[in-house]
């Protein structure tokens, strides 16, 4: 198990604070043998996913909307008007790395960025609602 203690702002900021932390933690991960890294929206950036893919490490993570610059997708209003399960996706290429961005609506909008999973594989699930007799099929 690896961890990094925060000791203040580092002198070296090659890719950005969050990206550098994950890259440092992944320094001991063997390359190009299908390892996968999952991140929450604090750490997920486009640059992180590109750098890890170049090392042969796949990534999936929720991502903050402000980190998806220059990407036009349906907004919260458009998705919420279609109800739970509404989604939008885009495929982008950055520095020769293919990224899949998926935005879907549940109770709120969730954004996911991945170099592992594509955007087309959809599954149906039952989702319980507190409203009487409502079960949503997503």
Automatic annotation (TrEMBL):
Residue ranges annotated for the PiggyBac transposable element-derived protein domain, each copy included: 7-129
InterPro entries per record: PGBD (IPR029526)
Superkingdom of origin: Eukaryota
Protein's name in the database: PiggyBac transposable element-derived protein domain-containing protein
